[in-house]
Write a structure and sequence with these properties.
Radius of gyration: 34 Å
Order of helices and strands: H
Largest sheet: none
Strand content: under 5%
Number of strands: 0
Shape: rod-shaped
Number of helices: 1
Distance between the termini: 117 Å
Amino acid sequence: MEAERFYLLGRRDAVQAKLAEVQKLQKSASALRERVRQLIEVTDEDHGKAIRVFTIVTVLFLPMYVLRRVHYCIKDFQP
């Protein structure tokens, strides 16, 4: 009877140690998940900025290029 009690107390301690380890790993996983989420948000913001700059440059310079080409074409056809 005493041997069973000693064995069960040992198993209980082992289970409690594993439980503590699992809880520690869960906290680490939560922190890691939050960090990854923040990094993804920063990356998305950077891509959004790059797309915005590309759009602005395109909207400004493409019409100027087209008008310049039209001007040269008209100039070439004048006598």
